[in-house]
Amino acid sequence: MEILKEIEKRLENLFEGFFNTKFRSTLQPVELAHKLTAEMDSKRQVSVSNVYAPNIFTVSLAADDLKEIEGFKEVLMRELSDYLTAHVKEKNYCLAGDFRILLTSDPQLQRGDCRVVGGHEENVADLAANSTQMIPTQEAQAVPKTSPLAFLTNHSLGLEFQLENRVVTIGRRADNDVVLNRPGISRHHARLERDKGAYRLFDLDSTNGTFVNGKEIGQVTLAHGDEVTFGEVNLNFRLED
């Protein structure tokens, strides 16, 4: 979606401006935006007629990172809210209220790391139809027992990752679901989304790109047996009954 790319570009410009000159951390606004939308997708709730996305987010940062962006916080929050709004429109989600993003510090986090937790307004269930039961997304879209399990593997490197969550992040940082701490891997390199049994892979503007069967991709639906390359790491995507 063009509007998402436009806002990502604005966030990148912020990094090249304020963040790159005054901010000593490795935290990047675009990475934070991607983590917010991944959390939104993961915590959405499904009713009979609508899909409600969380509108309340708590973003935890290292104390030094939080202190340094204090004077820049208003601009950053506005851009992140615009990014979330565009994502909501693209996914056709409903909201129970305006976005609220709370920045807080966590002494257990190192500089450049962040943790995002999303939540809903207390009245989100009341917005559904009178007899509608709100169902957490992970329960509503859990893979049926008859559906195949999905894996990314490289047996020569001793790597095997079962893709259990609906949204799976892949990268070098420890806060990813699939951690590949190897040469050529970006901190947040790619994202996998499961939708009705299909797995769609998105490159997150990684430095060295994401390739499927030797072809660089922006996003693509994976098929059993596809070879996926992140940086210098080759993984085989497979489905098992």
Overall pLDDT score: 80
Rg calculated over all Cα atoms:
18 Å
CATH topology-level fold name of the largest domain: hypothetical protein PF0899 fold
- CATH architecture of the largest domain, by name, is 2-Layer Sandwich
Distance between the termini: 34 Å
Give the biggest sheet.
6 strands, antiparallel
**Cα shape:** globular
Number of domains: 2
Report the order of strands and helices: HHEEEHHEEEHEEEEEEEEEEE
Parts with pLDDT < 50 across at least 5 consecutive residues? 128-135, 137-146
Major beta sheet, strand line-up: 8-7-17-16-13-14
Percent in helix: 25-40%
Individual helix count? 5
Estimate the strand proportion: 25-35%
Q: From the helix content, strand content and strand pairing, which structural class follows? A: alpha+beta
Task: Please provide the count of β strands.
Answer: 17
Q: Give the C-level CATH assignment of the largest domain.
A: Alpha Beta
CATH homolog superfamily of the largest domain: FhaA, phosphopeptide-binding domain (DUF3662)
Describe the model.
The structure is a single chain. This protein has 241 residues and is α+β, with helices and mostly antiparallel strands. It folds into two domains: 25-119, 2-Layer Sandwich (hypothetical protein PF0899 fold); 149-240, Tumour Suppressor Smad4 (Sandwich), CATH 2.60.200.20. The chain has five helices and 17 strands. It has a six-stranded antiparallel beta sheet with strand order 8-7-17-16-13-14, with no helix packed on it. A hairpin with a 2-residue loop joins strand 13 and strand 14. Helix 1 (2-22) packs antiparallel against helix 4 and helix 2 packs across helix 4 (73-91). The longest helix is centred in the first third of the chain and has 21 residues, at 2-22. The chain is globular and about 50 Å long. The relative contact order is 0.14.
